[in-house]
TrEMBL record:
InterPro entries to which the protein is assigned, alphabetical: AHH_dom_containing (IPR032871)
UniProt protein name: Uncharacterized protein
A Pfam cross-reference name: Tox-PAAR-like
Length: 352
């Protein structure tokens, strides 16, 4: 069905819109392979036709609208992983919504739009729902006239005016308050082997470590790491400009990870220490951003501009997994492997 109702410049998702939600990161499910069980990545796709928990009194084109609380009841593509997702323990289950309009509601619920973020197979992976980008109001357009939008590389071939949420202005979040600290997923391991000397060795403020020692505790200090470094994305002016039009926020929790500052604390959640400027990491990220920028310049012509935010979200999630998985090509410090071993040995634990 063609889209003719829009919110914030994006098409509204409803039961009859024919839209799809597609997982950007693999839906990793436990799969029987002979006598073994193997985690295998699968695609995951769900359809708006399976919409549940939708609007009751308000219809769009005669169909119930998709809301913040709504789900696409089922999904497919991961059927072979019948023993369930590695996180959710399910296969082919519902798709929910992580983002939605903040200023437009139906029946008290925020409405879901094209390019909003999704959670697939009962929160086993992430993705995006695809509808279409809006082009402006019918009373603003002139039949037969071509319009140019603010997108870099726009060829001026739009048949309607293109509008952007918040006029293309992004208000950055205070990232220090919204990123998930590692201990929120569990208190972390503790060890009597960790001593004052270990912290003094790394802590520039020696009296701080000494004061904490008097109370028998040491601060679990963390630092926030931008998965896509700000200085790197700013080098790609066209990419940064277009992403800003779509309200891309580098401080959004999707683009960051909280990591331990002290090498001594690595063992607590088996996360890399965040120190130094990690130049090699930034260089490799820049190589991928160059490709993302090149692809994004094509999105304007076929009204798929919001694919850019999906590209950035998927890439950030890949970086998160590489950092958490201690991928040798994506270590933040040259001495990261040694740091990891030292941390576990200090805690009296066998290192991975």
């Amino acid at each position: 069905m063609a889209h003719d109702v829009f919110t914030n410049g994006r098409s509204n998702i409803h039961k009859g819109s024919g839209d799809k939600a597609i997982a950007g990161a693999p839906d990793v499910c436990k799969t029987p392979v002979g006598p073994s069980v193997v985690p295998i990545p699968y695609p995951n796709i769900s359809q708006s036709s399976t919409l549940k928990k939708s609007s009751k009194s308000v219809k769009i084109n005669g169909q119930p609208a998709c809301l913040k609380k709504s789900t696409f009841e089922s999904s497919n593509g991961d059927e072979a992983g019948r023993l369930g997702g590695v996180i959710s323990g399910t296969t082919g289950k519902e798709t929910g919504f992580m983002s939605y309009s903040f200023d437009v509601k139906i029946e008290g619920q925020n409405v879901v739009r094209h390019a909003d973020s999704t959670l697939h197979n009962h929160r086993n992976t992430m993705g995006v729902v695809y509808g279409s980008v809006s082009t402006g109001g019918p009373f603003d357009d002139v039949a037969g006239k071509k319009y140019k939008c603010a997108w870099k590389n726009c060829k001026g071939q739009h048949t309607r005016k293109v509008s952007y949420d918040n006029k293309g202005c992004t208000v950055r979040a205070a990232y220090t308050g919204i990123w998930k600290e590692p201990w929120l997923g569990g208190a972390g391991k503790t060890s009597s082997q960790i001593t004052l000397q270990h912290y003094k060795k790394e802590n520039k403020v020696k009296h701080q470590a000494t004061a904490e020692a008097l109370f028998g505790t040491f601060q679990y200090a963390t630092e926030n790491h931008h998965l896509i470094p700000i200085k790197v994305i700013e080098k790609f002016e066209k990419l940064a400009h277009n992403a800003k039009l779509l309200n891309f926020d580098i401080n959004d929790g999707k683009y960051g990870i909280s990591l331990p500052y002290f090498i001594t604390d690595i063992f607590r959640h088996d996360l890399q220490s965040h120190k130094t400027s990690h130049k090699n990491y930034s260089k490799k990220v820049g190589e991928q951003l160059r490709l993302i920028e090149k692809n994004s310049l094509k999105y304007c012509g076929n009204n798929t501009q919001y694919k850019l935010t999906g590209d950035l979200e998927r890439y950030a999630e890949k970086l998160r997994m590489r950092i958490k998985g201690w991928d040798e090509a994506w270590l933040l410090r040259n001495a990261a492997v040694k740091d990891r071993r030292d941390s576990y040995e200090r805690a009296g634990l066998p290192h991975p």
